[in-house]
């Protein structure tokens, strides 16, 4: 997926500065030519500080062994945790858990058993994810690490197996968006309110597949726990990472942790904190760093927000929903999003506002309130602070530290017709139980208040600080997109020849050409590309995969498309599940390149991992749509008579009409397909590349 436009190439040649995301990636990239600055759009080979996998560690191990690997390249790089299905005591699950534990022991890998906590929380508590390092995990909420200034981003299982075997995998540096949090939060408004508001206001994919860097004059007043919640849910916002700066607030947080953490801890100790302070003074965004866009929200205009039902892109104030008298059946204070100590204490402050354990508000009749700490350490701290006892006294049902109902596992799932309110990160239809239930997301305080009131309610209603029938006066929300830097600009005459020439590996094609076939739709999902009914059928032959390719999108695709064509489609192509067959089915059809306005990130990773090339060119899909907008009958799949030539060496794409030598309708710079990516593609994908390294 090549987002890198001509304007970015030119600024790099002129020595433009780097943002903090690019600087961190630079320090964890390998085989970068001396003197070259990596920037947005570049494909790089990364060697992350750490890679975490959880219950999926055994599938990763099977893939690792299937590659012929016998030894973990760097055992200190790998972390295995058990957290997702910890309530499942079946023989099958316990056997899987034992397999993971034995594998970790045999390979000298750090292992954390079920009950220790959620993997992401462990990565932070134990200092694997650490400020200014690059830490990945085979889980979509790796973004959480950005709350402590660690560049966290998810990888897929094949990537994890690659890191286990070689210490490395690939990454494309995404466009970087700056999110400016200006103003100060009103009393009682939290990090969850910030991210729920952001997801609801900027809900047009403004940050899709971007890295985010948070800035703002009052950032030092945002607690670290709030930052972790915000970074965690940048995943739901559509971003690949959400990075907060390393500032005095964070440094103090780490110094305070030294009271609990042993002075000789290998990752969090006085020496590492001192080194961090020195590094943070140097590793800052350059004054001329480039950002794709800047979004601004005024925190002083926020109040308590609730997302849903069944969508993170819909948010309303709790006052608006309270006035609708929405009864609830279940409430949840669980997950990697909002079950840290401050979250538990916030909820405890609602159920027991006086602090007197004998004056606790009880959970409303007919409501079940489930609580699970993010880790055993958090649970112990909550017991010491008294928050745990208050929640239990109120009637909360305690679950073990882990994921559970957030992902539809274990006790307390939503039943058909029920309404739930949760401090988790996702309220997708059916995720937390029945698809016929309604799920809302909110802060711990709002969740606790709703559990007591028996309906979606503000903490103020329960605490008696406002009339229960009144509607809170909410200030006008101030949010805006300040700036866009276009990601796709055509080539001007004055720019000709100004970009770097890419070295091409021997045998790799210098040009890729084909006729464009338009699949004119946005959000074509992986089920549309490769039907789900075939996904779990093993050993489906390529011929069959080719025949069913895109059949759920358009049955006529088969008769209109031939080998050697190039698919061009709309925005967020390949969204949905992570099935790699979405990429391999297209390859089976004889198509080696897909062009789109944008791609779902998981599809992009699976494409490269299986040697399917992708180009992201919004200008092209917009131009085609303008050309065909007045056609009386829209074809889902249309042969355009336009031809594309990708000059890989010179990083240019030319689109012509009628033939490859026809009238030029578009010329544009695209990103570099560097030697590292060429090598993976030439080996038939990441698995072939890993085998060659072994």
TrEMBL record:
<dbReference type="InterPro" id="IPR039386">
    <property type="entry name" value="Homoaconitase_swivel"/>
</dbReference>
<keyword id="KW-0809">Transit peptide</keyword>
<dbReference type="InterPro" id="IPR001030">
    <property type="entry name" value="Acoase/IPM_deHydtase_lsu_aba"/>
</dbReference>
<dbReference type="InterPro" id="IPR015931">
    <property type="entry name" value="Acnase/IPM_dHydase_lsu_aba_1/3"/>
</dbReference>
<keyword id="KW-0479">Metal-binding</keyword>
<keyword id="KW-0028">Amino-acid biosynthesis</keyword>
<feature type="domain" description="Aconitase/3-isopropylmalate dehydratase large subunit alpha/beta/alpha">
    <location>
        <begin position="23"/>
        <end position="454"/>
    </location>
</feature>
<dbReference type="GO" id="GO:0046872">
    <property type="term" value="F:metal ion binding"/>
</dbReference>
<keyword id="KW-0457">Lysine biosynthesis</keyword>
<keyword id="KW-0456">Lyase</keyword>
<protein>
    <recommendedName>
        <fullName>Homoaconitase, mitochondrial</fullName>
        <ecNumber>4.2.1.36</ecNumber>
    </recommendedName>
</protein>
<feature type="domain" description="Aconitase A/isopropylmalate dehydratase small subunit swivel">
    <location>
        <begin position="496"/>
        <end position="619"/>
    </location>
</feature>
<dbReference type="InterPro" id="IPR036008">
    <property type="entry name" value="Aconitase_4Fe-4S_dom"/>
</dbReference>
<keyword id="KW-0411">Iron-sulfur</keyword>
<comment type="function">
    <text>Catalyzes the reversible hydration of cis-homoaconitate to (2R,3S)-homoisocitrate, a step in the alpha-aminoadipate pathway for lysine biosynthesis.</text>
</comment>
<dbReference type="Pfam" id="PF00330">
    <property type="entry name" value="Aconitase"/>
</dbReference>
<dbReference type="Pfam" id="PF00694">
    <property type="entry name" value="Aconitase_C"/>
</dbReference>
<comment type="pathway">
    <text>Amino-acid biosynthesis; L-lysine biosynthesis via AAA pathway; L-alpha-aminoadipate from 2-oxoglutarate: step 3/5.</text>
</comment>
<keyword id="KW-0408">Iron</keyword>
<keyword id="KW-0496">Mitochondrion</keyword>
<dbReference type="InterPro" id="IPR018136">
    <property type="entry name" value="Aconitase_4Fe-4S_BS"/>
</dbReference>
<dbReference type="GO" id="GO:0005759">
    <property type="term" value="C:mitochondrial matrix"/>
</dbReference>
<dbReference type="InterPro" id="IPR015928">
    <property type="entry name" value="Aconitase/3IPM_dehydase_swvl"/>
</dbReference>
<dbReference type="InterPro" id="IPR004418">
    <property type="entry name" value="Homoaconitase_mito"/>
</dbReference>
<dbReference type="InterPro" id="IPR000573">
    <property type="entry name" value="AconitaseA/IPMdHydase_ssu_swvl"/>
</dbReference>
<dbReference type="InterPro" id="IPR050067">
    <property type="entry name" value="IPM_dehydratase_rel_enz"/>
</dbReference>
<comment type="similarity">
    <text>Belongs to the aconitase/IPM isomerase family.</text>
</comment>
<dbReference type="GO" id="GO:0051539">
    <property type="term" value="F:4 iron, 4 sulfur cluster binding"/>
</dbReference>
<dbReference type="GO" id="GO:0004409">
    <property type="term" value="F:homoaconitate hydratase activity"/>
</dbReference>
<dbReference type="GO" id="GO:0019878">
    <property type="term" value="P:lysine biosynthetic process via aminoadipic acid"/>
</dbReference>
């Amino acid at each position: 997926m090549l987002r890198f436009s001509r304007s970015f190439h030119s600024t790099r040649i002129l020595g433009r500065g780097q943002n903090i995301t690019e600087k961190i990636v630079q320090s964890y990239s390998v085989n970068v030519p001396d003197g070259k600055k990596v920037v947005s759009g570049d494909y790089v080979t990364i060697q992350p500080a750490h890679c975490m996998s959880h219950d999926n560690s055994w599938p990763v191990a099977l893939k690792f062994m299937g590659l012929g690997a016998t030894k973990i390249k760097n055992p200190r790089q790998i972390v295995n945790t058990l957290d997702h299905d910890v309530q499942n005591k079946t023989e099958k699950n316990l056997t899987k858990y034992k397999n993971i534990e034995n594998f970790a022991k045999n390979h000298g890998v750090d292992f954390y058993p079920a009950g220790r906590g959620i993997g992401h929380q462990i990565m932070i508590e134990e200092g694997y994810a650490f400020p200014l390092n690059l830490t990945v995990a085979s889980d979509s909420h790796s973004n959480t690490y950005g709350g402590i200034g660690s560049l966290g981003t998810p990888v897929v299982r094949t990537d994890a197996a690659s890191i286990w075997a070689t210490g490395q995998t690939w990454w494309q540096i995404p466009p970087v968006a700056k999110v400016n949090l200006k103003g100060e939060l009103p009393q009682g408004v939290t990090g969850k309110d910030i991210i729920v508001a952001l997801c609801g206001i900027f809900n047009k994919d403004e940050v899709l597949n971007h890295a985010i860097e948070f800035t703002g004059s009052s950032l030092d007043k945002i607690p670290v726990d709030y930052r972790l919640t915000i970074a965690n849910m940048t995943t739901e916002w559509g971003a690949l990472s959400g990075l907060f700066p390393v500032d005095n607030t964070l440094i103090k947080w780490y110094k305070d942790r030294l009271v609990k953490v042993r002075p000789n801890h290998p990752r969090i100790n006085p020496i590492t904190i001192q080194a961090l302070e020195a590094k943070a003074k140097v590793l800052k965004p350059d004054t001329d760093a480039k950002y794709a866009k800047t979004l601004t929200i005024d925190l002083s205009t926020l109040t308590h927000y609730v997302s849903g039902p069944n969508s993170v892109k819909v948010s309303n104030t709790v006052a608006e929903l309270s006035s609708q008298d929405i009864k609830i059946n279940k409430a949840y204070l669980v997950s990697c999003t909002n079950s840290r100590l401050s979250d538990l204490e916030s909820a405890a402050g609602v159920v027991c506002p006086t602090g007197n354990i004998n004056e606790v508000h009880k959970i409303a009749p007919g409501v079940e309130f489930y609580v699970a700490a993010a880790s055993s350490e958090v649970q112990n701290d909550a017991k010491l602070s008294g928050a745990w006892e208050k929640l239990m006294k109120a009637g909360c049902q305690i679950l073990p530290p882990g994921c559970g109902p957030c992902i539809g596992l274990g006790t307390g799932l939503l039943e058909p017709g029920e309404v739930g309110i949760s401090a988790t990160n996702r309220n997708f239809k059916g995720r937390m139980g029945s698809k016929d239930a309604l799920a809302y997301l909110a802060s711990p305080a709002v969740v606790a208040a709703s559990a007591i009131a028996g309906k979606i309610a503000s903490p103020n209603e329960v605490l008696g600080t406002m009339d229960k029938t009144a509607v809170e006066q909410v200030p006008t929300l101030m949010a805006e997109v300040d700036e866009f830097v276009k990601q796709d600009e055509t080539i001007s005459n004055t720019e000709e020849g100004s970009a770097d020439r890419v070295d091409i590996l021997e045998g790799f094609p210098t040009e890729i050409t084909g006729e464009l076939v338009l699949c004119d739709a946005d959000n074509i999902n992986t089920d549309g590309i490769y039907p789900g009914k075939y996904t779990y059928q093993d050993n489906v032959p390529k011929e069959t995969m080719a025949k069913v390719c895109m059949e759920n999108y358009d049955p006529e695709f088969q008769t209109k498309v031939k080998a050697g064509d190039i698919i061009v489609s709309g925005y967020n192509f390949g969204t949905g599940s992570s099935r790699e067959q979405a990429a391999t089915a297209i390859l089976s059809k004889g198509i080696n390149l897909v062009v789109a306005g944008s791609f779902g990130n998981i599809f992009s990773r699976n494409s490269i991992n299986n040697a399917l090339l992708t180009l992201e060119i919004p200008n092209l899909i917009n131009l085609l749509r303008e050309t065909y907008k007045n056609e009386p009958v829209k074809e889902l799949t249309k042969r355009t008579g336009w031809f594309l030539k990708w000059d890989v060496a010179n990083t240019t794409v030319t689109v012509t009409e009628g033939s490859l030598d026809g009238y030029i309708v578009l010329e544009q710079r695209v990103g570099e397909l560097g030697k590292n990516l060429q090598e993976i593609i030439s080996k038939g994908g990441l698995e072939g590349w890993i085998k060659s390294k072994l």
